[in-house]
Amino acid sequence: MDILMPYCTCSQPMKKFQCILGFIMPALILGFGLAAVSISVDSYFLFFLAELNLAASGGDFLAVLKMLLHPSQGQDTVYCVHPYKIGAVMFEK
Length: 93
What we know:
This protein is mainly alpha-helical. It has one domain. Helix content is 55%, strand content 11%. Strands 1-2 form a two-stranded antiparallel ribbon. Strand 1 and strand 2 form a beta hairpin.
């Protein structure tokens, strides 16, 4: 079933805010952006599609919540998005 799930990953290590922005960007564009467009053109179908995209990005919000709640001990912390699973791997120095 994983074949039907599109997934994008970044191969470069990122800082915390860059990784969080990468996780929530699909929800911002496909959810809130599409909702704004649907309100401006008065389309119920586009609004339903925006709600569906926001509901589908629940896993992204959960990954961001886990990243925000995790205490980091080191000053030099980098995050690498996992290549085939949801979430990121954190390296502390």
